[in-house]
Design a protein that fits this description.
Layout (H helix, E strand, L loop, with lengths): L2 H33 L2 H5 L95 E3 L4 E2 L9 E7 L10 E5 L4 E3 L13 E5 L5 E8 L10 E5 L7 E3 L2 E3 L2
Length: 247
């Protein structure tokens, strides 16, 4: 056998192997199409039959329950619905969702409330001059001040008279009284004295209450009354009560 004859035989053998391989691949593809969903894609879709309206269903009649789990007898064939191909059941269903546009209503916001105007801060003016009855010439100048440092070996009600400008005043007296005592102090000291305007009234140091009022030359009250109280248990027997003129 020469070289040319060997080449011809080899070409024939290669052709036969290629043919057998192609036939095997074709058989495999046919088997896959028969068992898989590829064959259903090649078939035409089953037409949909629109049935006319049917009569209303008859009244409900109670029937014994049907055992849906009962297996069909051996050898029975499950009927296929008319017009449906078993292979067409594998046809994919495409659901198209169309988005719906919701209109947006541009609702205007309510107007903002108007700011409440702030009233102007009143400018403090001069204090009004207080008015007093005609008989009132002096008012108490400060609170009653007990002096606890002087002990209770004695006791007195004392203080200083000053006019509306703060200058000491001489010759003014106070009346001190309660249910046991009623008397007048000596006139306040002269302006030439080192403690000008000072007055003093000796009292009993025992716990009790006194009433003090400024009087004129005829012993008429010319000030409101002021109570001086020494309660039980308080070791203070000297009380300072100052006065200031209002005219």
């Amino acid at each position: 056998m020469n070289l040319r004859s060997s080449s011809v035989y080899l070409a024939i053998i290669f052709f036969l192997i290629t043919l057998v391989t192609c036939l095997g691949v074709l058989v495999v593809l046919l088997l896959m199409m028969e068992e898989g969903p590829l064959l259903g894609l090649l078939q035409k879709p089953t037409p949909v039959v629109i049935l006319p309206p049917t009569a209303p269903p008859p009244p409900f009649v109670s029937t014994p329950p049907v055992n849906t789990l009962q297996q069909p007898p051996i050898g029975a064939t499950t009927p296929t619905p008319i017009g449906l191909d078993p292979l067409s059941l594998s046809t994919p269903i495409v659901v198209v969702i169309t988005p719906k546009t919701i209109p947006v209503t541009d609702t205007p916001l309510p107007p903002l409330p108007s700011p409440t105007p702030v009233p102007p801060t009143p400018t403090p003016g001069p204090s009004p001059t207080p008015t007093y009855p005609d008989n009132i010439q002096y008012m108490q100048d400060g609170a009653v001040t007990p002096d606890k440092d002087r002990g209770c070996l004695g006791g007195s009600i004392y203080g200083t008279f000053r006019d509306a400008r703060g200058n000491p005043v001489e010759g003014v007296r106070v009346k001190v009284y309660n249910e046991y005592v009623s008397d007048f102090s000596a006139p306040s000291k002269a302006l030439s004295d080192p403690d000008a305007g000072f007055y003093d009234f000796i009292i009993n140091p025992s716990p009790q209450t006194w009433t003090v009022v400024v009087v004129d030359g005829a012993n008429n009250p010319i000030s409101p009354e002021v109570d001086v109280i020494r309660p039980e248990g308080v070791e203070a027997c000297y009380f300072e009560v100052n006065w200031k003129g209002v005219r």
